[in-house]
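Q: Given only this backbone (103 positions), what sequence would you predict?
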């Protein structure tokens, strides 16, 4: 476990539903190749804040990179719908581009 992940996990212990911290933990797990922990923390991030559009993007990227393209596509479809609903055009474009690259 790297130092940044250890610090984020300590923060997360104090604030277990903080979307920003959950996203950071997920990112760190993804960096070290722990796909299951990364996806789990992206899911927790999205449960805490369903409009955290980049969590959909990075969750799908992690899924695709691990070979689970069907799950990545499903994640992207939900993310695209969410980004459209919350009017996040930048995230919508990036989610759609990633989906296009997988289909």
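A: Predicted residues:
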């Amino acid at each position: 476990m790297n130092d940044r992940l250890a610090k984020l996990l300590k923060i997360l212990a104090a604030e277990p539903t903080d979307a920003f911290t959950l996203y950071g933990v997920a990112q760190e797990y993804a960096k070290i190749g722990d796909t299951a922990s990364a996806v789990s923390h992206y899911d927790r991030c999205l449960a805490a804040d369903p409009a955290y559009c980049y969590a959909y993007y990075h969750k799908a990227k992690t899924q695709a990179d691990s070979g689970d393209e069907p799950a990545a596509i499903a994640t992207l479809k939900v993310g695209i719908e969410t980004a459209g609903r919350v009017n996040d055009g930048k995230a919508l474009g990036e989610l759609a581009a990633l989906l296009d690259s997988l289909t």
